[in-house]
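Below is a filled-in request sheet from our internal design queue. Each sheet records the structural input a requester submitted and the sequence that came back. We keep these sheets so that new team members can see what a complete request looks like end to end.

REQUESTER: design group, bay 2
PRIORITY: normal
MODE: inverse folding
CHAIN LENGTH: 380
BACKBONE (tokenized):
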């Protein structure tokens, strides 16, 4: 009997998926009618487990805002590929933006669709960025020895069957220059029973976790209430199987844009051994206007939250995934904001400091650069 076979004796629920707004009985007919144009434009999916986390008596419930459509998504703001990911696509299904990391888009389905998703373009009929055949991507990775890590993403790789996910992980780990395989997933938050009901997934993680080759789970918890007993158990089991787990979240208006909520999330993550990794500035993706928090306000929330955490919680960094690289927001004075390239596409930009005049309405780098006539003061 394998190490995780005891899980099969437990009777965990298998949540049903809901793909039409009409199926949500907690919404009035008027609300369903009002939200249908949103779901006609942007994909909608949820399951019974995640739906049960919503407090329907609270119209401002944060879990509701994460997953239930909002008519404000129809406002013409932002663009579909806000970080120009397509520009870094080197072969079908593979992005190579940073020298040592490659990104494989292995799936165009998620356990649920976050309303603030920055890759909603992948779920539209005309998009073909995702591939089921990763052979060209694998050849590219083999040929580029500088690539040290591969991030499996999409969509959500953990929506795949364990058999299909194992095939991908195995092929990537067989490449000599790869030492880290990351799996980007929100399944532990959306549907932890996907993990709890499948001992073979845990066996797969164990089988491909070696002293010098690691699997990282890049979890995606946005609010402390997502850390249910079932979610925590799923994370613990993956840790026991050998996975290293970290958490990342965007800062989302009406969800975690309060220092107390964000600090609570950091502390609870640290308590279960899942370090907070990145807090992202919400990307200016089409439909994301109701979720975006201005950068300077976001920085103040972020630093206030960190001030209530020990050094364990302070490991988080507040960044924006700009098309030129990950830019960390590192400080404010009365009239200036300080930004630094945490990771840059061009090595010449690596660790560069950028100083701009403050703009309280700014939501992206261009909201600063468009206000100056010449390139800002930069130090290497």
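RETURNED SEQUENCE:
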């Amino acid at each position: 009997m394998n190490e995780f076979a005891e899980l099969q004796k437990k009777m965990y629920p298998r949540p049903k998926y809901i793909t039409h707004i009409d199926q949500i009985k907690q919404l009035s007919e008027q609300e369903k009618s009002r939200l249908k144009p949103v779901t006609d434009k942007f994909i909608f999916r949820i399951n019974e487990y995640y739906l049960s986390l919503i407090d329907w008596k609270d119209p401002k419930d944060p879990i509701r805002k994460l997953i239930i459509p909002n008519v404000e998504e129809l406002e013409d703001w932002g663009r579909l590929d806000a970080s120009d990911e397509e520009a870094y696509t080197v072969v079908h299904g593979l992005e190579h933006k940073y020298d040592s990391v490659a990104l494989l888009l292995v799936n165009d389905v998620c356990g649920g669709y976050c309303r603030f998703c920055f890759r909603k373009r992948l779920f539209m009929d005309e998009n073909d960025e995702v591939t089921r055949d990763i052979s060209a991507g694998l050849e590219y990775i083999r040929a580029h020895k500088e690539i040290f890590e591969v991030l499996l993403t999409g969509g959500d790789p953990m929506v795949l069957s364990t058999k299909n996910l194992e095939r991908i992980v195995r092929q990537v780990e067989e490449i000599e220059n790869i030492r880290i395989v990351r799996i980007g997933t929100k399944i532990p938050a959306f549907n932890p029973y996907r993990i709890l009901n499948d001992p073979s997934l845990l066996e797969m993680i164990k089988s491909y976790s070696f002293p010098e080759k690691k699997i990282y789970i890049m979890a995606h918890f946005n609010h402390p209430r997502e850390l249910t007993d079932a979610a925590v158990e799923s994370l613990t089991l993956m840790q026991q199987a050998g996975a290293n787990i970290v958490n990342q979240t965007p800062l989302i208006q009406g969800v975690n844009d309060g220092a107390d909520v964000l600090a609570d999330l950091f502390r609870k993550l640290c308590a279960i051994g899942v370090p907070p990794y990145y807090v992202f500035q919400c990307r200016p993706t089409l439909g994301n206007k109701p979720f975006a928090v201005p950068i300077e306000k976001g920085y103040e929330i972020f630093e206030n939250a960190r001030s209530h955490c020990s050094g364990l919680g302070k490991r988080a960094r507040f960044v924006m995934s700009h098309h030129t690289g990950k830019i960390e927001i590192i400080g404010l004075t009365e009239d200036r904001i300080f930004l630094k390239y945490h990771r840059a596409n061009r090595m010449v930009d690596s660790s560069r400091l950028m100083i701009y005049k403050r703009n309280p309405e700014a939501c992206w780098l261009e909201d600063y650069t468009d206000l100056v006539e010449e390139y800002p003061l930069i130090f290497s």
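SHEET NOTES:
- DSSP finds twelve helices and 15 strands in the chain.
- The first strand starts at residue 17 and ends at 18.
FILED BY: M.R.
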